[in-house]
Design goal:
With 629 residues, this protein is of the alpha+beta class. Helices cover 40% and strands 18% of the residues. Residues 438-444 have low confidence and may be disordered. GO terms for molecular function: DNA binding.
Length: 629
């Protein structure tokens, strides 16, 4: 059986079909919302066995149909069934945290400061519960949404004065606000009864490189309702030129799957229909774990985006201690962090202005209804300003999320690049999905670091890294993060962090200090806490690897486990398998050093020689290594 990975590529529907596609999305959205609302009281029925398509599970419980045709109804039921299945999983998590809900999770009001959630207690409850689940042999990874649900339950308590007893009371019915329709309930691109599609391949030539390549185009035909609600087939669209990434995947043998039609709404209220073209592309097989000898560990840093270290499996006679074979690599995104922090401050300013004019509108309408005071002449202007501020806030959030996605792709590409250059097929990173950075930090920098840590790391970075590793035949594994930043990687003893390694700065430990210093008189290791954390994460990955090679069992460890051995450093082996570039990269001169191929606001730092770092930073190297993986 061929190993594959599913990728999705958004394609804008041609202008001539926009009206038809939007009518189809409107009709299907109403039908999907009706199904979700009808079956919401039977949510427990979707928490059991999930083998087979979701529409078959919905069909067993649905009594009233939309009347849009059998195949169109299947697609609508498939979309509704996927939503109900996800909500049923979330309900199971809620039932697991109900015994943990108590007033101890709420900090009482103090003076002018209102009551609020106690995030430290919430995190402690989640960590304790996950540890109990792991000790009992249950799947603790199924409860990664505990923190969010506990916070949501606490918000409910702050509003009503009591914790919710059922999930249905906490969660409103999750109806769609924009059109979103999958065609997975139909039978194929050529014989389907809800849509038809043709993908045509033709030879072409790239004008810049003058190299021959495959060109692909898509023709689309939809079954949509007209203005009177009568369903019929429309005409074939004009040929849609597909992007180079899709053409390259089709040339490599990718198979088209059922696409998804969805709606994108602009800040000005405009609506655009987009077709997500789904391809099942071939992926590389992962090499057996018996053949692996190296582990790459990466840490989500406090001051740098990621820190990377690589360990080598211990050889015979090395006292079972792993050996570090790479110098640490730090990805510093200070420039982009500054832009994101300024954007967050702008969002806060816009929200304050919007709330101010919104309060004016609310007071004027209340005075008119209660006391008959005439509406002021400026009411229409105030309402217009509220709408304008909402539009600007939406634009800022889109820019913020777009930069987060760029950072996720940048970090994942660097991790894969370093793994391939070091002949490593096992990447281990900390699991921070249920941990949350608390406090405002020291100044604006600390406040933004909390924002960044609580947004980017949980979703986008791991999502991008996992599918890219799957395509290239690399294992991506999450390990327990607790204790990795306060443990010495050389001796394995607990260590404290300080403002710096200087003796005058080591009089008082700081929980978020940048430097880790071991107090063991036989060790006295000193280094950046992010560097130490990356080594400890690699140690956890090495313990997993050695356990499998010895027992053929998959075991997860904590940094305090006896199976996790310390590591040594070997400078003579700290080399990268860099291919010849045929160019001489020139790093820019100045206080901050930036290298070719990286964004101006990105800095790549390591203890490798400057020549090696300059070659590592070139875009030619990244393209050659990733394409030849």
């Amino acid at each position: 059986m061929v190993k594959t990975q599913t990728l999705s590529f958004p394609i804008r529907v041609p202008d001539g079909m926009q009206a038809q596609a939007l009518r189809l999305l409107d009709a299907s959205r109403l039908a999907i919302n009706q199904i979700i609302t009808t079956l919401w009281p039977q949510l427990d029925a979707f928490a059991g066995e999930r083998a087979g398509p979701a529409w078959k599970q919905v069909e067993r419980h649905l009594l009233i149909r939309s009347g849009h045709g059998n195949r169109q109804e299947r697609c609508e039921m498939e979309q509704a069934g996927r939503i109900l299945r996800a909500q049923a999983s979330r309900k199971r998590v809620f039932e697991a945290i109900v015994p943990l809900l108590s007033e101890g999770l709420i900090i009482p009001a103090q003076g002018k400061r209102p009551a609020r959630k106690d995030h430290r207690q919430i995190n402690e409850q989640v960590r304790t519960s996950r540890a109990q689940l792991q000790d009992a042999g249950e799947d603790a990874e199924a409860f990664v949404a505990m923190t969010n649900l506990m916070a949501q339950a606490c918000n409910w308590y702050l509003q009503t004065g009591a914790f919710p007893s059922t999930y249905e009371a906490l969660q409103p019915v999750p109806v769609l606000s924009v059109g979103h329709l999958t065609f997975a309930g139909d039978d194929g691109m050529k014989a389907e009864q809800t849509y038809r599609a043709r993908i045509e391949l033709a030879p072409g030539c790239d004008l810049e490189s003058r190299q021959e390549r495959q060109l692909a185009s898509l023709s689309l035909r939809l079954r949509t309702p007209d203005d009177q609600g009568k369903w019929s087939w429309g005409a074939w669209s004009q040929a849609i030129a597909l992007p180079p990434a899709v053409c390259a995947s089709l040339a490599q043998g990718a198979l088209p799957q059922a696409p998804t039609l969805r709606e994108i709404r602009g800040d000005d209220g405009s609506r655009v229909a987009v077709l997500d073209l789904t391809l099942e592309v071939p992926a590389r097989y992962v090499s057996p774990l018996e053949q692996e000898t190296r582990v790459l560990g990466w840490d989500w840093g406090v001051r740098s985006l990621i820190t990377v270290s690589i360990l080598q499996r211990p050889e015979e006679g090395d006292e079972e201690r792993s050996r570090q074979v790479s110098r640490p690599v730090f990805l510093d995104t200070g420039g982009i962090d500054g832009r994101q922090a300024r954007l967050r401050r702008e969002i806060d300013r816009l929200k304050a202005c919007r709330d101010r004019y919104g309060q004016f509108v609310k007071e004027a309408q209340a005075a008119h209804q209660e006391h008959g005071v005439p509406l002021p002449a400026h009411l229409a202007g105030w309402q217009q300003r509220v709408r304008e501020y909402d539009a600007r806030i939406s634009q800022c959030w889109k820019s913020y999320e777009r930069r987060n996605r760029e950072l996720a792709h940048l970090a994942s590409n660097l991790l894969i690049l370093l793994a391939l250059l070091s002949d490593c097929r096992l990447i281990c990173g900390e699991d921070l999905r249920t941990l949350k950075t608390q406090g405002r930090g020291r100044g604006v920098r600390g406040r933004f670091r909390n924002w960044r840590n609580n947004t980017t790391v949980r979703g986008e970075l791991w999502r991008v890294l996992k599918y890219k590793c799957h395509l290239l035949g690399i294992r991506a594994r999450q390990v327990e993060a607790r204790g990795t930043t306060h443990t010495c990687p050389r001796c394995g003893e607990p260590a404290k962090t300080y403002a710096s390694a200087a003796p005058e700065d080591r009089t008082q430990a700081i929980s978020w200090g940048p430097m880790l210093c071991c107090s063991n008189p036989e060790c006295l290791w000193k280094g950046a806490r992010d560097y130490a954390a990356s080594l400890n994460i690699a140690r956890l990955g090495m313990a997993f690897l050695l356990t499998y090679q010895q027992t053929r069992r998959y075991e997860s460890y904590r940094v305090t486990s006896l199976e996790v051995n310390s590591c040594l450093y070997s400078g003579q082996e700290a080399t990268l398998l860099l291919p010849s570039q045929g160019i001489t990269p020139r790093p820019r001169e100045g206080k901050h050093v930036y290298y070719a191929g990286w964004s101006y606001t990105i800095a790549l730092r390591t203890s490798q020689p400057r020549e090696v770092l300059a070659i590592l930073s070139t875009s030619h190297l990244r393209k050659d290594v990733l394409s030849s993986a």
